[in-house]
């Protein structure tokens, strides 16, 4: 019998009524003859609330306890979904990550899935169970502690189950009806894509488009999972939503496929550090040890053997970063005159595999931003993306201007 994976995000299980509607959709697939693995997120807003409680209790928290708390939201929805299905006479049971078990690394708060042995669930399917409801976002470490997979991690749970069970398809049900050229909530001209290449989706996700967690796209690409994003709010056909697929399966595409943004970034500058071998290593080694995710890095031209070093990181890691850098200074590993922190920046990026063969995308991007009077603070590029750091108050404006400049409202 073929296995189908259906994942329901936070807004799709936000109330008992929404869970009921999601369960009806699952029942339709069971009636078509599928065995279904349902992955659920916590109810909308629940994980944010739990994260808030942790931060309020312990700002420099023990990540193992962060996971113990934040994983709990999914346990509630998994149980409720199984109960709702049973009420509809669909044989179902819930599983928490450790029960499956979803085996992960010990990197608490950002664990990676190592393996999902399918035997336990297969045995239940063989006994007549039709739906396995899995609490997304969570797993168990080799030490036997509960782990979580990073924000948005239920997407990754879904794709990992689809790979482990060789599912026919992995459907990600969410609050938008597919993947758009940019976030439809901040750009009304955003256009829904029928298909998007894995590599483009991977970049968009890692640059902030939260519709899919980055790691879920990586896994889908590696294990050739047929991955689809669609709305849980509308009636759906088998063709609905957006398919994430290989580049070769897409006929025409724009040079720029999409625009992504990341709202809560911070820029930090160490003023006047020594310009000699080992300094970058001392700074970024200390930040890495403290678990800070450094993104962009810029080093100024040096004057009289001293330079300024600028980097960006998520806003909520600023305190960790400041502590790490100060501790390195106290140990005598680095010296600097001042540490300047700007917590009011955002990152805006354009992404497209067409950039490999087209020149001038950066020039067009900078022109569009300057026409709106948006000042660029930091720039980084790779083969298929260009990112800029700008003042957060211009973020929406920048996204809309770039969407217009690259004609993304029209198909190629
Ligand atoms: P879920 O709770 O279902 O996992 P998320 O909030 O994590 O949903 O992701 C869906 C949201 O992603 C949408 O509501 C939308 O605002 C946002 N988003 C950002 N970029 C895009 C994009 N390019 N296409 C579609 N949605 C996007
Ligand atoms: N509930 C978790 C979060 O909000 C995981 C998820 O929804 O994918 O990040
Ligand atoms: Mg999500």
Automatic annotation (TrEMBL):
Could you say which residues bind ATP here?
7-10, 174-175, 180, 185, 210-211
Q: Which GO terms describe its biological process?
A: homoserine biosynthetic process; lysine biosynthetic process via diaminopimelate
Q: Which CDD domains match?
A: AAK_AKii-LysC-BS (cd04261), ACT_AK-LysC-DapG-like_2 (cd04923), ACT_AKii-LysC-BS-like_1 (cd04913)
Named in its record, the pathway it takes part in is: Amino-acid biosynthesis; L-lysine biosynthesis via DAP pathway; (S)-tetrahydrodipicolinate from L-aspartate: step 1/4; Amino-acid biosynthesis; L-methionine biosynthesis via de novo pathway; L-homoserine from L-aspartate: step 1/3; Amino-acid biosynthesis; L-threonine biosynthesis; L-threonine from L-aspartate: step 1/5
EC number(s) reported in the record: 2.7.2.4
Q: Which domain of life is it from?
A: Bacteria
Q: Which family does the similarity line name? A: Belongs to the aspartokinase family.
Stated name of the protein: Aspartokinase
Naturally occurring in which organism (per UniProt): Limimaricola litoreus
The uppermost taxa in this organism's lineage are: Bacteria, Pseudomonadati, Pseudomonadota, Alphaproteobacteria, Rhodobacterales
């Amino acid at each position: 019998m073929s296995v189908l994976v259906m994942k329901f995000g936070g807004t799709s299980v936000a109330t008992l009524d929404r869970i009921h509607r999601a369960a009806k959709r699952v029942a339709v697939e069971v009636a078509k003859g599928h065995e279904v693995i349902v992955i659920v997120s916590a109810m909308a807003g629940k994980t944010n609330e739990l994260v808030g409680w942790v931060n309020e209790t312990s700002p420099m928290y023990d990540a193992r306890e962060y996971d113990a708390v934040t994983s709990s939201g999914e346990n509630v929805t998994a149980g409720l979904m199984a109960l709702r299905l049973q009420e509809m006479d669909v044989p179902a049971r819930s599983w928490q990550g450790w029960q499956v078990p979803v085996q992960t690394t010990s990197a608490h708060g950002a664990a990676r899935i190592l393996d999902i042995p399918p035997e336990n669930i297969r045995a239940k399917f063989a006994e007549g169970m039709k739906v396995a409801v899995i609490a997304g976002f969570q797993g168990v470490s080799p030490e036997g502690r509960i782990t979580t997979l990073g924000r948005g991690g239920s997407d990754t749970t879904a794709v990992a189950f689809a790979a482990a069970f060789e599912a026919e398809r992995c459907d990600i049900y969410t609050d938008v009806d597919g993947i758009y050229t940019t976030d439809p909530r901040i750009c009304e001209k955003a256009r829904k894509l029928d298909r998007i290449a894995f590599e483009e989706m991977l970049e968009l996700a890692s640059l902030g488009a939260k519709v899919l967690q980055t790691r879920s796209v990586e896994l889908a690409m590696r294990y050739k999972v047929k991955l689809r994003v669609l709305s849980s709010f509308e009636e759906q056909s088998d063709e609905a939503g957006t398919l994430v697929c290989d580049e070769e399966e897409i006929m025409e595409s724009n040079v720029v496929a999409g625009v992504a943004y990341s709202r809560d970034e911070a820029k930090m500058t160490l003023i006047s550090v020594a310009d000699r071998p080992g300094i970058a290593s001392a700074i970024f080694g200390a930040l890495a040890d403290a678990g800070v995710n450094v993104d962009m890095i810029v080093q100024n031209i040096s004057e009289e053997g001293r330079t300024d070093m600028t980097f960006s990181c998520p806003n909520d890691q600023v305190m960790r970063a400041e502590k790490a850098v100060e501790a390195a200074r106290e140990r005598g590993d680095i010296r600097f005159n001042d540490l300047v922190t700007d917590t009011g920046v955002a990152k805006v990026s354009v992404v497209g595999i067409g950039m490999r063969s087209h020149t001038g995308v950066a020039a067009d991007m900078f022109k569009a931003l300057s026409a709106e009077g948006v000042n660029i603070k930091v720039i980084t590029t790779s083969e298929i993306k260009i990112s800029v750091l700008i003042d957060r108050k211009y973020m929406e404006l920048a996204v809309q201007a770039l969407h217009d400049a690259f004609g993304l409202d029209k198909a190629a």
